[in-house]
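Sorry, explain these tokens?

***
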Amino acid sequence: MKSLWLDIGNTRLKYWITENQQIIEHAAELHLQSPADLLLGLIQHFKHQGLHRIGISSVLDTENNQRIQQILKWLEIPVVFAKVHAEYAGLQCGYEVPSQLGIDRWLQVLAVAEEKENYCIIGCGTALTIDLTKGK
């Protein structure tokens, strides 16, 4: 089963196509002002890949994410946007309003968090971020 994974940041759109949990294609492109326009240029390529699902991590605003979702509807496969939760997989978000934490940071912490270990996660995107996890 082939999957498309999109990471849409403030300046770049990165994607991976995986099959049986192996990366078979990847790319990173500057999107400058319009990630939706960049994605529109890639849609025909994606359409010919035999994809079964799409997972998205996006730090864009609601309007831009809706535009992205409209474009991806052309592929006629399930699209899931990752969301920050107050609690997920035993990890609690330290923000009073979880949606204010960037999804990129949330996914980084989820990727390494272990119940009994402490971690310091340093992210180097548009901004430098430092997040801490505390094991029990």
Summary: Helices lie at 35-47, 62-72, 103-112. Residues 83 and 100 are 11 Å apart (CA to CA).
